[in-house]
Amino acid sequence: MITGSLVALVTPMHPNGDIHWEDLDKLVDFHLENGTDGIVAVGTTGESATLDQKEHCRVIGHIIKRVNGRIPVIAGTGGNSTREAIELTTEAYKLGADACLLVVPYYNKPTQEGLYQHFKTIAEAVPGISQMLYNVPGRTACDMLNETVLRLADIPNIVAIKDATGNIPRGAELIAALDGRLAVYSGDDATAAELILAGGQGNVSVTANVAPKAMSELCAAAIAGNREETERLNELLMPLNRKLFLEANPIPVKWSLQRMGMIGEGIRLPLTPFSEKFHAELEEAMKASGVL
């Protein structure tokens, strides 16, 4: 079982929007050197919505090759088309990903039965790879209820869920009801510490892009049940947890990495560069959290 800090890695780009492969290598090495426990490739933070299918698979393969088995790589292969999600998941399996992250379908707003059938169909179509569900209703406009997750927990290769609801009572209730059948990970940096202390296995993190060591240490402390150390690290990172969402993710985190000299300024439309009016506010948060 993968535990700890799983970075939702950005996809660095040149100013014209082409993928910057050298900067991608630099980011992977940065995480290997700073204790990140796993890399999520081409999730929401990796701009999956604007990469075509060929680019999507090429980025996943590039990261797997660079990591070279040193930490797990989880490939973002979800979509609002079940057929497309199967194609991406199949390719990630062939490329050697350790697991796949499958977001709740967005825009088309399926029913709970539709969600169950969607994830069941993908799992059965690609049985050789472990699959992590991803519920983020704030972005998908569709909320997968705990009852549906409990049904999906009976499928052997569905092994985990990333819960980005930010609702700790609901998350704790899910952890208790699952009774170990699925691993539960936070997908919300601001509430991750509490969810892990309640029995979660880690955090799929945006903040880890810029503060990998501190986030890894926070997750380890919380998994160990060390509330005092968890709260200390959570307080340190909270300015980043909040300010990295001043505009839609990954706009602020890409600017932060650019400010740190890790990547260039590329981002793809319809996302735009981080608004100058927020620069000082985010820079102050970066300094408060010790990354500048």
TrEMBL record:
- List its EC numbers: 4.3.3.7
Q: Which CDD domains match?
A: DHDPS (cd00950)
Record-level Gene Ontology MF annotations = 4-hydroxy-tetrahydrodipicolinate synthase activity
The organism's superkingdom is given as Bacteria
**Which Pfam families did the record assign?**
DHDPS
- Give the UniProt record's GO annotations in the biological process aspect: diaminopimelate biosynthetic process; lysine biosynthetic process via diaminopimelate
Q: Which PROSITE patterns match?
A: DHDPS_1 (PS00665), DHDPS_2 (PS00666)
Keyword flag Lipoprotein: no
Q: Where does pyruvate bind?
A: 45, 204
What the entry lists under Gene3D superfamilies is as follows: Aldolase class I
Q: Which UniProt keywords apply?
A: Amino-acid biosynthesis, Cytoplasm, Diaminopimelate biosynthesis, Lyase, Lysine biosynthesis, Schiff base
Q: What is its main location?
A: cytoplasm
Q: Where is this site: Part of a proton relay during catalysis?
A: 44, 107
Q: Which reaction does it catalyse?
A: L-aspartate 4-semialdehyde + pyruvate = (2S,4S)-4-hydroxy-2,3,4,5-tetrahydrodipicolinate + H2O + H(+)
**What is a single cellular component term in the Gene Ontology annotation?**
cytosol
Give the active-site positions: 134, 162
| Location within or outside the cell | Cytoplasm
Pathways involved: Amino-acid biosynthesis; L-lysine biosynthesis via DAP pathway; (S)-tetrahydrodipicolinate from L-aspartate: step 3/4
Key word Cytoplasm present: yes
At what residues does the UniProt record annotate the site feature described as L-lysine inhibitor binding?
A: 49, 80, 84, 106
Listed under subunit, the entry gives: Homotetramer; dimer of dimers.
Similarity comment text for this entry: Belongs to the DapA family.
| Its job | Catalyzes the condensation of (S)-aspartate-beta-semialdehyde [(S)-ASA] and pyruvate to 4-hydroxy-tetrahydrodipicolinate (HTPA).
Q: What is this protein called?
A: 4-hydroxy-tetrahydrodipicolinate synthase
Q: Origin organism of this chain?
A: Marinobacter antarcticus
